[in-house]
């Protein structure tokens, strides 16, 4: 899954693709580079981000989706709002990527049910402005698993077919670096739930911190690609269905090497 953020303020590509033509060209380039799906978002979810209104979000994404869908590019809509998801599906998107797992907007389940499309339920505890305060866990793997299963129950209770559901542990969303590493280490717990799992570590802050220089300055966002590739290979080897990344070409190359090597799926269980 390749990322196009049509936003002025996303942490990695914010401001680069606010112009429709630039966003469409970037989506086309990601598809040529091997993306199976291009994920279009019109609202930044970086920690601390302020919200935009639904009309602004819709206006940002719909023209980009219309053009890419007309060119045959499979599109997911990265939104927590039912109205934006519905407009995006109408414009040609075929997957809903909801970082709130249906929690932010109770109407989302109905949109997903009626469309019958894949719906990514990501683990989430609150909007970006407040989410760092919510990064408190006794056992992050068990709690994220349990909270994701509640999201699944709500979705199925609203009439969504379980076969529509994709799960995502939500790295960086109400999680600190150690939480992200624990979730990475135990991705098998999520794979074992039997739903496709999406893993989205691309260029995130915890990778920047891991690669900090001698003065403790985090590695800049656009110099985290090799670390991102390592996370993608680990995730796919652990059974992930997909990885959501900014640089599709390098990810496709790394996964081609993994496949050609015939490496078995990793067992990430500790025992
Ligand atoms: N992260 C971001 C945005 N959308 N969607 C899913 N399913 N999982 C994620 O972890 C996720 C997401 C924030 O990162 P970005 O600014 O690179 O889009």
From TrEMBL:
Pathway annotation from the record: Cofactor biosynthesis; tetrahydrofolate biosynthesis; 7,8-dihydrofolate from 2-amino-4-hydroxy-6-hydroxymethyl-7,8-dihydropteridine diphosphate and 4-aminobenzoate: step 1/2
Domain of life of the organism encoding this protein: Bacteria
Cofactor(s) needed: Mg(2+)
Catalytic activity: (7,8-dihydropterin-6-yl)methyl diphosphate + 4-aminobenzoate = 7,8-dihydropteroate + diphosphate
EC number: 2.5.1.15
Domain Pterin-binding per the UniProt entry, residue ranges: 1-256
PANTHER family reported for this sequence: FOLATE SYNTHESIS PROTEINS, FOLIC ACID SYNTHESIS PROTEIN FOL1
Protein name as annotated: dihydropteroate synthase
């Amino acid at each position: 899954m390749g990322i196009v953020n049509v936003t002025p303020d996303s942490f990695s590509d914010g401001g680069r693709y606010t112009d429709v033509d630039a966003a469409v060209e970037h989506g086309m380039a990601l598809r040529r580079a091997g993306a199976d799906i291009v994920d279009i978002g019109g609202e930044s979810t970086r920690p601390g981000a302020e919200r935009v209104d639904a009309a602004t979000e819709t206006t940002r994404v719909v023209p980009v989706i219309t053009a890419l869908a007309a060119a045959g590019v499979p599109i997911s809509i990265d939104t927590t709002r039912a109205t934006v998801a519905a407009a995006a599906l109408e414009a040609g998107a075929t997957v809903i990527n909801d970082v709130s797992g249906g929690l932010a907007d109770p109407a989302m389940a109905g949109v997903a049910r009626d469309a019958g499309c894949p719906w990514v339920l990501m683990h989430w505890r609150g909007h970006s402005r407040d989410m760092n305060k919510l990064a408190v866990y006794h056992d992050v793997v068990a709690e994220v698993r349990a909270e994701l299963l509640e999201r699944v129950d709500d979705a199925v209770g609203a009439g969504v077919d379980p076969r529509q559901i994709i799960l995502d542990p939500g790295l960086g969303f109400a999680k600190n670096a150690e939480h992200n590493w624990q979730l990475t280490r135990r991705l098998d717990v999520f794979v074992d739930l039997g739903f496709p799992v999406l893993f989205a570590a691309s260029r995130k802050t915890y990778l920047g911190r891991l690669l900090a220089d001698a003065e403790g300055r985090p590695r800049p966002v656009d110099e985290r690609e090799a670390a991102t590739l390592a996370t993608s290979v680990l995730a796919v080897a652990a059974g992930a269905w997909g990885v959501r990344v900014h640089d599709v070409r390098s990810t496709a190359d790394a996964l081609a090497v993994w496949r050609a090597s015939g490496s078995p799926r990793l067992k990430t269980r500790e025992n």
